[in-house]
Write a structure and sequence with these properties.
- Helices cover 82% and strands 0% of the residues.
- With 197 residues, it is mainly alpha-helical.
- It is flat and about 55 Å long.
């Protein structure tokens, strides 16, 4: 599993994909941090920066995880992986941990921003918000990696992951459209949406 983890992590930063995705997320959180937290003196990093970048994660995670298993299947290197002495669970967990490590890099930079806010008089509760943000990202990575394992086309994997995450993102507002008496309609709508995605 450790060899799979190292190989997957190295592949992200061998090309430009890992650097571009990390820069994309850092630019988004940096703009909100500069404009709201430092510009207006707002100390709640969790709400004013992390909450506002959640929508950008809808693009970040599908692009990050689209090649995880789909590229292996397309290039027929999955046969080599399966003949290794590593179990299927080891392969999936190794790839998952590599994706979580790539996502942890922008989170570490966000941690530096939180330290700056803390030194300027902010609260330490922003670290809890960052932990929740990271755990939310790990759950989204698991969904996108599952979608990547369903197909061998990277674009289809990215669209499936985006659809699933967008549905989960919109679920609270969709649920508010249905009142308590139409719970059956909500269940049918959710089933149809899941089938379509």
């Amino acid at each position: 599993m450790l060899a799979i983890y190292k190989r997957e992590l190295r592949s992200f930063f061998h090309g430009m994909m890992g650097y571009l995705l990390t820069a994309f997320l850092l630019a988004a959180s940096g703009i909100y941090f500069l404009a709201l937290n430092l510009g207006y003196g707002l100390t709640d990093f969790g709400y004013y920066t992390l909450y506002r970048t959640i929508f950008m994660l809808l693009l970040y995670f599908p692009v990050l995880a689209m090649r995880s298993l789909a590229e292996e299947r397309r290039a027929r290197t999955d046969q080599l992986l399966l003949t290794n002495p590593v179990s299927v669970w080891g392969i999936v967990v190794g790839k998952y941990l590599a994706l979580c490590t790539v996502f942890a890099l922008p989170c570490l930079a966000d941690g530096v921003m939180i330290v700056v806010l803390w030194l300027l008089g902010g609260t330490a509760s922003n670290f809890a918000a960052l932990l929740c943000y990271f755990l939310l990202g790990c759950a989204a990575i698991a969904v996108c990696e599952f979608c990547s394992g369903l197909t061998e086309n990277q674009i289809i994997a990215a669209v499936m992951g985006l659809s699933a995450l967008l549905l989960a993102y919109m679920m609270p507002s969709l649920r508010s459209m249905f009142n308590a008496g139409s719970a059956v309609a909500l269940v049918v709508f959710t089933a149809l949406s899941a089938g379509a995605s």
